[in-house]
Specification:
Radius of gyration: 13 Å
Low-confidence stretches: none
Largest sheet: 7 strands, mixed
Order of helices and strands: EEEEEEEEEEE
Distance between the termini: 38 Å
Mean pLDDT: 95
Number of helices: 0
Helix content: under 10%
Structural class: mainly beta
Length: about 130
């Protein structure tokens, strides 16, 4: 397992942008496939986006396609989730998660990711 630390959440108005970050202190995050998930109180945790350890492959939930971008910065040892055109439906706690290092095939189910951060709150006001 790897320790993950999210940051960058906040409270914004609908239509605004926000970027959340995921760091892996003491480890090279670029060796891990990373996913972003979100959870609203009373709802199940849902997949948002994922990136392969190489950074070459990304995937998004239909609800965020065209608005969110996941990317990795090896120099910063960080995976980002850039969120544009936010709506109140994007409100929730955003978690980054990592699968086993060097894993080439990782899906969108939370059970496939063994390491999780503590989450960062994103609130979008209408």
């Amino acid at each position: 397992q790897v320790q993950l630390v999210e940051s960058g959440g906040g409270l914004v108005q609908a239509g605004a942008s926000l970027r959340v970050s995921c760091k892996a202190p003491g480890r090279s995050i670029s060796t891990y496939p990373v996913g972003w998930f979100r959870q609203y109180p009373g709802k199940e945790r849902e997949f948002v986006a994922r990136i392969s350890y190489s950074g070459e492959t990304t995937d998004y939930a239909d609800s965020v396609k065209g608005r969110f971008t996941i990317s990795g910065d090896d120099a910063a040892n960080t995976v980002y989730l850039q969120m544009n055109s936010l709506t109140p439906e994007d409100t929730g706690v955003y978690y980054c998660a990592a699968a086993s290092p060097w894993t080439t095939i990782v899906g969108t189910r939370s059970i496939e990711y063994g390491s999780w951060g503590q989450g960062t709150q994103v609130t979008v006001l209408s």
